[in-house]
Amino acid sequence: MAACNSKSGEQAKSAGAAPPEYTTVDPATAATVHGTIKFNGKSPAPREIDMSSDPACQFAENSPGPKVSVQYVVNNGMLANVYVYIKEGLEGKNFAPLQAPAVLDQKGCRYHPHVLGMMAGQPLRILNSDPATHNVHPSPKVDGNHEWNVSQMPKGDPVEKTFTQPEIMMPVQCNQHNWMKAYINVSRTPFFAVSDEAGNFEIKGLPPGEYTVAAVHENAGEQTQRITVGPSETKQVEFVFGQSH
Ligand SMILES: [Cu+2]
Predict the structure, then answer these.
(1) This prediction's pTM
(2) From ligand 1's centre to the CA of 128, what distance in Å?
(3) CATH number at residue 35
(4) Of 17, 194, 208, 227, which residue is least crowded by CB atoms under 10 Å?
(5) Is residue 2 part of a domain?
(6) Tens digit of pLDDT for each residue in 189-233?
(7) Is the dihedral of CA 139, 134, 179, 107 positive or negative?
(8) 65 pLDDT band (50/70/90 cuts)?
(9) What is the 3-state secondary structure (H, E, C) of 164-215?
């Protein structure tokens, strides 16, 4: 067994840099973590957004529905736009980057989604569905993730980028429209989710084990919980946020 291992090690060495060994998860025993994000107390009132500075966003101004900030999206006491990921428990395991691109759209002079989860090495595709010019400008803080600044013409071609390092709540802004803000979360593993409008999230395909699950909100910060999931188990987890002071 040992001889066998050393032989394959030598082969990899002679072929140059060893390719990363990716962990595969047995679907027969994969577990699911799902749950809800609650918000206790009164959420801050949404702020009105004035888009009148760009006539090209006028169509969005005139479309139905309130034009308000999305820092706190609370529906029936449930909090949306919370990034949930497996923070600890997968050390030493490498997972192949997801192939399908994560998509950030610009629609109605807003980012969709407001909070995006993606994997390190996964393609990020940025769309401009608007008749307006946008300028996409992420500001990463982690070494190895590069800041860039790309102008995108009305209904322009998609921009494809990637981030190589894990990073939480990387701000993205539009240099044309100061109300446009999004957050990109880059995960080392494929085990992440963002809570939906009803505050629900689901992480599937997790190997059984002991984990720290973290839930991060752009303003309300991070909370963690320790969980143990057995083979094929579906674990319910609830996080409760309140307004930060
Ligand atoms: Cu814009």
Answers:
(1) 0.89
(2) 9
(3) 2.60.40.420
(4) 17
(5) no
(6) 999 999 999 999 999 999 999 999 999 999 999 999 999 999 999
(7) negative
(8) low
(9) CCCEEEEEEEECCCCCCEEEEEEECCCCEEECCCCCEEEEEEECCEEEEEEE
Cα of 241 from ligand 1 centre, angstroms: 30
Q: How far is the CA of 159 from the centre of ligand 1 (A)?
A: 14
Look at residue 54 and give its three-state secondary structure: coil
* Interior angle at CA 177, CA 137 and CA 150, nearest 5: 30
How close is the Cα of 56 to the center of ligand 1, in Å?
Answer: 10
Q: What residues make up the domain containing 109?
A: 24-242
> End-to-end CA distance of the chain, in Å?
58
Does any domain span residue 13?
A: no
Beta strand residue intervals within 129-166, DSSP E: 134-138, 150-152, 159-161
CB-based contact 187:118 (threshold 8 Å): yes
User: Quick check: 192 and 166 in contact, CB under 8 A?
Assistant: no
